[in-house]
Amino acid sequence: MKLTCIVTLVLLGLINCPSLVLAYIAQSVNKHLVNMRSQSERPKFPDNGAPTGRRKGGTSRDGCTPLDMPITALVPGKEIAEESKSFLTFTISEYPTFWVYVPELPLNAHFGEFLLQDENDENIYRISLSLPEKASVVGISLPQIPEYALKTNKNYQWYFKLFCGDPRKTPDYFYVKAWIQRVPLTSKLQSQLNIRQSDSYTTYAANQLWQDAITNLANLRLTNPNSHIFLEDWTLLLKDIGLSEFAPVPIMKIDKVQKGIPQSN
């Protein structure tokens, strides 16, 4: 009886004042998502053992103008003395997107490079990048070409390099390194994703699929820039891996080769 009354009121509201009713429904749904992500039992992204990488790229290096902040791979990890370790992450995507924090750069440091290799150091994909002038969270997507597709249950290593000047003339660069593994999509996970299509990142996170969680939420933030809900969830997701300081930074994606930029050797 109570449900019938609620439905009747909603229908009457849609007829008389549709914008207010839709706004109320959206607000209710958004509150539910924030409450879910705010629970103390939020998903954890543990150290899965070897292989590990380098999560932060440092702020000083011979031949390079010092950086105010280190370049940082947005992956789970931990700080060990002066070293920042990155953990192995998981994905169900053949063509994942890789996320890096790039600080505000000196004038001679706007050349970047992304490199994907298999665990035997064989190059899979390599791209030169023009980098943003302002501090940004940058996403680099693999092109959807079969030769670049990740195979299941295989480990891949990826590098992001920031060159100090023309990479053809100087070997100096900052870099981060991380590892990723594609895992099979199970029928159970597919069922979960079918239920939560509008906010898949919560399902990915619950299943420790870091790469898919951050990519889905970053895309939602890009398409809904005024959403306080997605911003709060983005902050919580980065807080879970100890990188909440990067939550306010603008997000941008690089989906294709940047022409006219020299390749390094």
Explain the overall architecture.
The strands form three sheets. Strands 5-11-10-7-8 form a five-stranded mixed β-sheet, with helices on one face. It starts with a helix and ends in an 11-residue tail after the last strand. The longest helix has 20 residues, at 18-37. It has helices at residues 2-16, 18-37, 187-195, 200-206, 210-223, 228-239, and strands spanning 53-54, 72-73, 77-80, 83-86, 89-91, 97-102, 111-118, 123-130, 136-141, 155-163, 173-182, 251-254. Helix 2 (18-37) packs parallel to helix 6 (228-239), helix 4 runs antiparallel to helix 5 (210-223) and helix 5 (210-223) packs antiparallel against helix 6 (228-239). With 265 residues, it is of the alpha+beta class. It contains six helices and twelve strands. A hairpin with a 2-residue loop joins strand 3 (77-80) and strand 4 (83-86). It has one domain (53-254): Immunoglobulin-like, CATH 2.60.40.2550. The model is unreliable at 1-15, 17-33 and 256-265 (pLDDT under 50).
Spell out the blueprint of helices and strands:
Elements: H1 2-16, H2 18-37, E1 53-54, E2 72-73, E3 77-80, E4 83-86, E5 89-91, E6 97-102, E7 111-118, E8 123-130, E9 136-141, E10 155-163, E11 173-182, H3 187-195, H4 200-206, H5 210-223, H6 228-239, E12 251-254
Parallel strand pairs: 5-11, 9-12
Antiparallel strand pairs: 1-4, 2-6, 3-4, 6-9, 7-8, 7-10, 10-11
The end-to-end span amounts to 72 Å
How confident is the prediction overall: mean pLDDT?
Answer: 81
When the domains are counted, the total is 1
Going across the biggest sheet, name each strand in turn. 5-11-10-7-8
Rounded to the nearest angstrom, the radius of gyration is: 21 Å
